[in-house]
Design goal:
This protein is about 15% helix and about 30% strand. With about 110 residues, it is an alpha+beta fold. It is elongated.
Length: about 110
C-alpha cells in the first residue's frame, strides 16, 4: 500500500479522535496547596537497593524518608540475603544519606 494513503488514514483517524474528545472537569476541587508536580529525571535518581521491590515512599515531618520494600537485600545492601518485607528510614541529603532498617529485614 502506498505510504501516502497510510498517512491519510492516520490523519483522518486522528481528526476523528480529536473531534470526539471533550473537556472534562475533575470531580474534585482544585488543590490550593499543590500547584505543580515536577518529576525527577532518571539521572537524578539514586538507587541503593537494586533488585528490590520498593513501594510507597513517605516524606515525614521529621525530614526523613520512609520506604516499604519487599524482596530486598536490606539497606545497606547485604548480598545473598533477601527478606520478604522491610521498612526503611533514610536520613540526610541525596549527597550524604544514611539508611536504617526500622522493621523487618535481618537486623530486627
Amino acid at each position: 500500500m502506498d505510504h501516502r494513503i497510510i498517512r491519510i488514514i492516520f490523519v483522518l483517524i486522528g481528526f476523528d479522535w480529536l473531534i470526539g474528545c471533550e473537556q472534562h472537569n475533575p470531580p474534585y476541587p482544585v488543590n490550593p496547596v499543590i500547584s505543580d508536580v515536577c518529576w525527577s529525571l532518571s539521572f537524578q535518581v539514586i538507587c541503593k537497593a537494586t533488585g528490590s521491590d520498593n513501594w510507597s515512599d513517605v516524606w515525614a515531618n521529621n525530614v526523613n524518608l520512609y520506604i516499604a520494600s519487599g524482596d530486598s537485600c536490606d539497606f545497606p545492601r547485604k548480598p545473598f540475603k533477601k527478606s520478604n518485607l522491610d521498612f526503611t528510614r533514610i536520613e540526610g541529603t541525596s549527597d550524604n544519606s544514611k539508611d536504617f532498617n526500622v522493621w523487618g529485614g535481618f537486623e530486627s
